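Predicting holo structure, histidyl-adenosine monophosphate bound.
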Amino acid sequence: MSFFKTVRGMRDILPEEAKIMRYIEEKARKTARLYGYKEIITPVVESYELVAAKAGEEVRARMYAFEDLGGRKVALRPEFTASVARLVATTMRNEPKPLRLFCVGSLYRYDEPQKGRFREFWQSNFELMGSEKPEADAEALLLTNTLMMAVGLKNYTFKIGHVGVLRGILRLEGLEEETQNRVMQLMDKKQHEEALGIVKEAGASDKCLKTLQRLVGLRGSNIASILEEMEKLVREYEAAAEAVKNLEEILRLVKESGEKLDITIDAGFARGLEYYTGVIFEVYTPELDIALAGGGRYDKLVELFGGEPTPAVGVAHGIDRIMLAMQEQKTSLTTKEEKRVMVIPVNEGLINEALKISEMLRNEGIAVETEVMRRRVTKALEDADRRGISHVIIVGERELKEGTVILRDMQKKEQKEVRIKELAEKLNLSSA
Ligand code: HAM
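Done. Tokens:
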């Protein structure tokens, strides 16, 4: 029989990386607690129509979609936002607003596998439902900054734009929503020429084309001057001008929060997902050219799913990519190294005693691995050393009669006889 491999695009995550991913998840949970987001757990399998509705062509075409045995068209979730909006439109519709919801889990997209792009990946996802105000948008940016700081990343930047600017112009020029979506998809992929081609074909004015052309090239980190330039460019498009004002307010609040976010405004920035109606943003580090996080405002999705009109803003952080960025930056985890103890019986007749001592210590909250290979003590000690065990307990016949065992400190390479009753206390006092 030939050896099985993982399916293309799927990965096994081994202990070293699983540890980092759980660490990021733990920091995301802490961020959720700090900002008052309650966790929900939604299903991996959703109705195809729900997740496809506003996913945008790019994501829609890459969905793991299939018919279940009951003949329902379903899909593995490609993101969380549609599921959270479904919940808020239905079961949670009467929950008082604002409603802050957090989730974490795996998502599935049939992307071309490459560095940082997987077919199964993980996100921590935050949605703030019920506020249309700029302070809600500022919160999505600030909590993302909190998480990036908490995992120890450096030199990350926020790329920020506003969907209302481009859409405001296209709407006033009479472009159908469908055509707008195609333009935004191309903009997202930075195919600006093609995007402008569609706008032209749709019969937009020369003034519109010129404005779009200038917007597309307008980006930078001098926030005041970029905003001023944007304002000038869109003056005659009311909705777009309002969008610029909104962006200005959000960025003012972020600045006045006292946190120093490194921000680049990109006037021609678009994101693939189609539900966005306001500010949009992504996070980058210099080492990777893919986004670590992405989010924005989507005021119409809950309503589209049959709920009350509910303005909303949210963000998802790509856990796999944050891990990659941490590895690139050689970020070290700030968790305390746990003490790890190994219990070795000197012969087969003492296995039961080794198990008993192991259980006793675990009941005291100490992490214990019992020797289960029946190796000679020297061999087992070599293995303990190789695996970074901090203390070894050797259970021997003679000592046992005295109610004692040998406690060996693997780092100091010292050992002494310790009363079994005092083991937990001694271990708790020693360093890892
Ligand atoms: P998104 O930009 O599609 O937004 O994904 C957010 C993050 O998930 C990305 O920035 C990236 O870090 C990670 N990600 C996406 N695709 C992959 C992949 N194939 N492999 C590895 N990581 C990936 C959303 O999903 C929206 N639901 C965010 C949102 C929440 N907007 C409002 N609320």
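The two ends are 45 Å apart (CA to CA).
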